[in-house]
Amino acid sequence: MRRISLALLVALVFPALAAGAARDTKLALVAYSTPKEAYGQLISAFQKTPAGQGVSFSQSYGASGEQSRAVAAGLSADLVAFSLAPDITSLVQKHLVAQSWNKGSYHGMVTRSVVVFVVRDGNPKKIRTWSDLVKPGVQIVTPNPFTSGGARWNVMAAYGGALRSGKTPKQAQTYLAQMWKHVVAQPASAREGLQTFLAGRGDVFLAYENEAIFAQKHGQPVQFVIPKATILIENPIAVTSTSQHKQQAQAFINFLRTKPAQRIFAENGYRPVIKGVAQGLNFPVRPQLFTIKYVGGWAAVEQRFFDPRTGIMAKIIGSSGG
Question: Rounded to whole angstroms, how far apart are CA atoms 240 and 238?
Answer without folding.
Answer: 6
